[in-house]
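Anyone opening a protein record will find just a pair of labelled lines. A complete record is shown below as an example.
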Amino acid sequence: MLRIQIITIIANILFILYISRLIVKGKLREEYAIVWIICTVFLMVFSFWTDGLELLRKVTGVVVAANLVFTGFIFAILIYLLHLSVVASKLYNDNKKLGQEIALLKEEFNKHLESKK
């Protein structure tokens, strides 16, 4: 086993442990951790199976295997960022609606207090 394989496997294990710790502490939700765990497992598979990346390179027609890895992960990151943008937009709309509802309730409450005086 090559030194880079050992380093990659150890780094992947440490990363999965770190993700697990973030989940346990409540700092990372499970639905977001799944993406990181899948990416880490993907890297772990190619850490053990070194010929697999070369096989994928030949199947896809990419000249250099490293370009295949970078392209794949850049594409995955873009999809993940799009997902996070959708989640942030939904949260923004929910907060806006909640603020409007609170303002209406506050106005109704103040009218009710004035009518009691």
